[in-house]
Amino acid sequence: MGHKSFLKTVGFVIVISAVVPFITSCEPGANGFCEEKHVAFIELPRVVRKTLRRQLLTLTTIDTEKIEFVTKKGGRKIYNITLLAGNIKYKSEVAEDGTLIKKEIVWLFDRDESKSVPKGWGVSETNSKGKPATWQVIGDDSAPSKPNIVAITSNENSGHTYNLLIAEHTNFKNVNVMVMVKAISGMQDQGGGVIWRAQDSDNYYIARWNPLENNFRVYFVKDGNRKQLASAYMKLDPQKWHRLNIKHIGKKIIARVDEKKYIEVEDTTFSCAGKVGLWTKADAATGFGGFKVKMQGQNK
User: Fold this and answer.
1) Of 12, 54, 172, 279, which has the fewest Cβ atoms less than 10 A away?
2) Whether residue 122 is found in the same domain as residue 62
């Protein structure tokens, strides 16, 4: 704890060098309390290490880690893992047979360089006109996740060009996505939202808030063409931060804003896992913070 561990990828193998991480193991003793001891990563069950390696393949430096196991009813061990690596806080639960039970990723943009695209994210567009919007990490003292957010700081797009910032090494199917959104500017369009189950820059789901139209909508984009699935009237202060929360399990989508459910709809256009990311349309410049993604149930 409190030291650095370095993970190097060689093909599909992660080699741990410099400092071997320690794991806090926790088993109930005779008195019902947990007795803690330190064990090396290599002492974890092989199938658990294999699951962790698959999840951590894209991480190069782990700043801090806490891994513990608890024995559940019936003697099954569940390993609880929390890692901080670059701009990612990663939490998961892995069973002793290697089954990934839960996974959560929170992006901490205050750990990225100012004026840069956050590490591990890629700028893209749907219906590109050759002038991608500028996405940058910037300071914003008003943000709930201060000091930094990620925002579009320059945008000359128009019409049906969709501005995307995609978390490159993500793969979620049944998912709970949360983000804080604040409209900054835009003549043709304002606001924005999240994408999920993204196969590429032309195929994904969107949930977005538009303060110019006073509505909140869920769409899918297939082969670059957008189709509306549901819409709700919503009049919110565009100068304030608002929380978007999308839960998609199987074919059911539930969409909330500021904890209130506005949309429930079913769709099967994209039934497999995909990437997550951020979205605006045309000339909309928008700020985003507190981006969190949770795996809901099995990711199959």
Assistant:
1) 12
2) no
